[in-house]
Amino acid sequence: MTGSAAYPDLVAGRWQTLPIVEQLANVGSEVERAIGAHEAGRLDRRDHAMRRALELFDLTAADEGLKMRHVRSDLLQTPDTPAHSCDAIAHPVRSAVAGEIVAARAAGSRLATSAMLTTMAIAAPNAAGSSGLIP
Amino acid sequence: MAPAEMRLVREPIGRGGLLVTAEAGFGNLVKAVVDVARSVMAIGGELHSDEEALLLDDGSLQQDLWGINLHPAEPGADWIEVDSMINVRSSRDNRSQSVDDATPRERIRIVVERLVAG
Fold first, then answer.
1. Least Cα separation, residue B73 to chain A (angstroms)
2. Predicted ipTM of the assembly
3. Helices and strands: H and E segment counts in chain A
4. Measured between alpha carbons, how far is residue A66 from residues A99, A119, B73 in Å?
5. For B86-109, b where at least 16 C-beta lie within 10 A, e where not — what string?
6. In sequence order, what are the beta bridge partners of A68?
7. Nearest residue on chain B to A4, judged by CA atoms?
8. How far, in whole angstroms, is CA A84 from its chain's centroid?
9. DSSP codes of every residue in A112-134
């Protein structure tokens, strides 16, 4: 898989057809997986999960119609390590999804609950810090 | 390399079959959704939600579906990672990406071991 996209179909355009709340829930899912792998000392799994998270997040951030581009800019300025990337991505994802969840819940999307719980988990106070993920 | 093709697994495919799917997709893992009632699983999807949809189209009930990641190259019990966004289900009081109830978790393991025998 080295050097190729983990999500070729999504990269080819399907990602942009998904609701923003579903996009962010999937990103958050990979970030939470990375945190769990880090806590378990599975650095190989952590790095793979972060790579997948960032690939998906890039697709969201690249959408001109969304307000995520500044987040990607912030990410580009962080040291290129899984720990720093995880820290940089977890909090803005939580922040960004908060507003989207309100709309999704109003529309009756069951993904709203998934997104909310996932993003709360990944960005809960001290979640990453207590794991030692953030230096 | 061609992307992995999403499909249903009803008969044993062996670790070798999973390794091929992993190589064509994420490299180190295969995302899968298991129907613990019908003993069938979907593999090869980019998202667990895609595999969930495939199983629902095939007649599965959502309450029986759980998302996992399989690491076919890894030895030991850790090769089955119960972890998916679709597992977050307030209707079953499952509030994490894992599966909190030991009964479905054990059923997942039994179904996977049967479908990936060899």
1. 13
2. 0.86
3. 7, 0
4. 13, 18, 39
5. bbbbeeeebebbbbeeeebbebbb
6. none
7. B1
8. 13
9. HHHHHHHHHHHHSTTHHHHHT--
Determine whether the interchain pair A10/B90 forms a contact, defined as Cβ–Cβ distance below 8 Å.
Answer: no
E strand intervals along chain A: none
Lateral strand order in the sheet of B30-35: B7-9, B40-43, B30-35, B65-70, B80-81
Chain B residues with CB-CB distance to A9 below 8 A: 3, 46
pLDDT at A129: 38
Q: Which two tokens stand for residue A93?
A: 């994802």
Q: Which residue has the tokens 């307030």?
A: B90
Give which of B66, B73, B67 is closest to B29, Cα–Cα.
Answer: B73
Total residues belonging to chain A? 135
Token readout for A105 is 């819940």
Q: How far is B36 from chain A (nearest CA, A)?
A: 21
Give, for all 135 residues of chain A, the pLDDT tens digit.
445 677 888 988 899 888 877 887 888 888 888 878 888 888 888 888 888 888 887 888 777 565 555 555 554 454 454 445 555 555 555 444 444 444 444 555 555 555 554 544 444 333 333 333 333
Provide, rounded to the nearest whole percent, the portion of chain B with pLDDT above 90: 77
User: Is the overall model pTM greater than 0.80, yes or no?
Assistant: no
Give the model confidence (pLDDT) of B44-64 as tens digits.
Answer: 999 999 999 999 999 999 999
